[in-house]
Amino acid sequence: xxxxxxxxxxxxxxxxxxxxxxxxxxxxxxxxxxxxxxxxxxxxxxxxxxxxxxxxxxxxxxxxxxxxxxxxxxxxxxxxxxxxxxxxxxxxxxxxxxxxxxxxxxxxxxxxxxxxxxxxxxxxxxxxxxxxxxxxxxxxxxxxxxxxxxxxxxxxxxxxxxxxxxxxxxxxxxxxxxxxxxxxxxxxxxxxxxxxxxxxxxxxxxxxxxxxxxxxxxxxxxxxxxxxxxxxxxxxxxxxxxxxxxxxxxxxxxxxxxxxxxxxxxxxxxxxxxxxxxxxxxxxxxxxxxxxxxxxxxxxxxxxxxxxxxxxxxxxxxxxxxxxxxxxxxxxxxxxxxxxxxxxxxxxxxxxxxxxxxxxxxxxxxxxxxxxxxxxxxxxxxxxxxxxxxxxxxxxxxxxxxxxxxxxxxxxxxxxxxxxxxxxxxxxxxxxxxxxxxxxxxxxxxxxxxxxxxxxxxxxxxxxxxxxxxxxxxxxxxxxxxxxxxxxxxxxxxxxxxxxxxxxxxxxxxxxxxxxxxxxxxxx
Length: 524
Prior knowledge:
The chain has helices at 36-48, 63-75, 89-98, 115-122, 126-143, 159-171, 188-201, 221-230, 252-261, 263-266, 277-288, 309-317, 345-354, 361-377, 383-391, 438-450, 494-523; strands spanning 14-15, 17-20, 53-57, 80-86, 105-112, 147-152, 176-178, 209-213, 235-238, 268-269, 305-306, 336-337, 401-409, 417-424, 427-434, 455-463, 472-480, 483-491. It is of the alpha/beta class and 524 residues long.
């Protein structure tokens, strides 16, 4: 048997078997049913990425399941293809027929062993179940050389009776013994100890492979699976994205990366190509219509994303400060430094450099302030948002006039009007005006303060990014006496952006007007 060695001095890596049951246990999740074509697609990817055993389905369940298992068995290149069967003669014959064309096939049969299952589900005695084990495992072994037997609800079964059941299964010809935590009840110490006790007390236990199969009802599926390795198991049953009944199964991607990242503890390896984990996750999510939670380990959207300023600063200095594995190692293109309200100056400056901007100290501080203001109002700040911020001409310090506050009243009935307060060279001036719609009212209110000698040539709005909280980028072009100036501004509030763009263009006209006056005086 494989011994999970905790000594870093032992450099010989030992293999464990990855048994994927996404297409069987995973598909039993309510609403996760897959079509035949989708199952074939998932099976092909699992085979290509190095999964050792693919449990392709439950052949007796339906004609569709039988066909899926048969076709996957026929097409498999490397993986063992397993079909599940209850401890019923017809189930076992059907599973044997389904995997018949596989290069390497397996019948996986199971029966309950816990007192609660025997009493309420099976209505059988312990002795009756032992006879069933002998009969059905023998039948399966007569059909195929590779037979796995599972003790359903093993973790709520007494160790004394479980020992007897496992002994019967081995004597009848089982080559793999699975001791599942069917209802996610066990703790890691209990689960590890169960394997140790069974292996120590069952004759010929060294001649079979012991397997884990853990559900996540208490959030311990992966922890229990890894604890099973310490107890002597060397096969782990798991699913992509942890898909499975109720709270799901142990997640294949977490198992693979746990033993890979912490091989100093486990001293084991798998044949799975970890670089295809993200691809597999996305495929299973798509075909099952089960989204992956954002903070899901390994394959979640945020698994390699950082927004905290402290974390981003550390990542920019050395990625190992906050990442224990590289995104590339699981098929993610790169780390994502998410720009948001928690981002610091270091990350913002790095993002500006990535986007091709190099700002002076004052301009940078102004851009950073506007970025923070935006991040407080907008859930996701995209590159386009930052570009829009930086591209806004001039800073508030250099503008003679700036927007302080505005209120707009609009709707299907009544007067459309706007009130605005401008900071005009340190003096706050407020005016109110009406117009043909909110934007017209707003611009009329501005003109009440700055005058109306300028002519509006262009007013243009477009969304910087998608979503209802997207920034609106507004362009305003003003003309006065042949001089033209364009102002741009972006904000999640279109009217705020409109007011700022108008004032930006007006400030530029002022600068041009003043320069012309200075040139005229100089010429005299």
